[in-house]
Design goal:
Endonuclease Iii, domain 2; mainly alpha; elongated; 12 helices
Amino acid sequence: MDHAPAIRHLRRTDPVLGRIIREVGDCALGERRYASHFHALLRSIIYQQLSGKAASTILTRTLAIYGGRAPRPEELLDTPDEVLQAAGVSRQKIGYLRDLAQRVDAKEVPLARVARMSDDEIIASLTQIKGIGRWTAQMFLMFQLHRPDVLPELDLGIQNAIWRAYGLKKRPAPKDVIRIGAPWRPYASAASWYLWRSLDGEAAI
């Protein structure tokens, strides 16, 4: 992806972010995408509240049930709970995955046409699903759909990075993140990526 316009804009409008960009270097946002939107959401649910290593193991075992690929919604719905549990998926997350599959299968969550939907429409649609909140929907927008103007104001990493970079007295509240990030529009996704990288060298997912 060509991030040159975003970097020019961010450097011009925000000197603090400009310094971070110089320190971090090239932007790698948007270098990967999962084979299907369903796969991306399934992965997000499995990864919740787990270490990366544990979640990766469970995801690998879950995909192995379907020959190493992400299942189609109807395949997941046909999979007995005990099979998913044997892969390491908790009862609560099995419920979340089934709700995801049911809503996608019934076209209540129209993954086939998300490319034509606005960011707000996608967030409203995805947050109908049990286990998917605003933050997860924003990660889907940013990393799966590569939407350019996503600012995850609830993300503690973003809040901490702003707190440190801008020399604030306390961690900014979500409304402060939105206010501080206003000059980054319409390239808030790249700004968010750089803020994550400024903390520990790792983007969100």
